[in-house]
Amino acid sequence: MTDDVSHDKRALRAELRERRRICTAKERNDSEVGITANLIELATRTGSTSVAAYLSTTDEPQTRGFLHWASEHNITVLLPISRADGLLDWAPYDGEEENSDLIGMPAPTSEVLGPIAINDVDLIIVPAASVDRSGMRMGWGRGYFDKTLGSMEAKPPVYAVIFDNEYVDVVPTEVHDQPVNGIVTPTGIVTITEHN
């Protein structure tokens, strides 16, 4: 069973990577405008004063416009840095230099705060390959966000940022996969489950 799910995930991730890779510059620009506006709306609607987010890669829906806005509006933003043990350290967003972490993801160069820093945020924004109608999130296969979310005793609302066509009926899931409360896409915000 698990081998079938792993195979299904690999196949779906390959298809989604290719779709993202062939996006045109205009599609990327249009999606960035929508993602930024919708992330701002989500943060405003939730009254967030501190957010855990991430620096997007070239092929991902872009988060930097939102990160700049949050910083200008005195919202504390923490960004992840991958660790060798599979956990995430967190560092404040300062809008300055970026580096690459040990798995090649964009990371801040500010002071590292450690894994428990995320416990103080009131909104979490995560990357995803796809999310289904029940809120199950499929990541890119490294498990960093699943481990982080799975280890938190109390979680604030968690929203995944994806392109519109990545919100699907069902994604293959395994026992360690963590759901999200909703999604942010270029065309809107969908709350799937209310935060408990």
UniProtKB/TrEMBL annotation:
This is 5-formyltetrahydrofolate cyclo-ligase. It comes from Rhodoglobus vestalii. It is an enzyme of class 6 (ligase). GO terms for molecular function: 5-formyltetrahydrofolate cyclo-ligase activity; ATP binding; metal ion binding. Gene3D superfamilies: NagB/RpiA/CoA transferase-like. Its cofactor is Mg(2+). It catalyses: (6S)-5-formyl-5,6,7,8-tetrahydrofolate + ATP = (6R)-5,10-methenyltetrahydrofolate + ADP + phosphate. Belongs to the 5-formyltetrahydrofolate cyclo-ligase family. Signal peptide: none annotated. InterPro entries: FTHF_cligase (IPR002698), FTHF_cligase-like_sf (IPR024185), NagB/RpiA_transferase-like (IPR037171). GO terms for biological process: folic acid-containing compound biosynthetic process; tetrahydrofolate interconversion. Its EC number is 6.3.3.2. ATP binds at K9, R10, A11, L12, R13. Keywords: ATP-binding, Ligase, Magnesium, Metal-binding, Nucleotide-binding. Substrate binds at L55, E60.
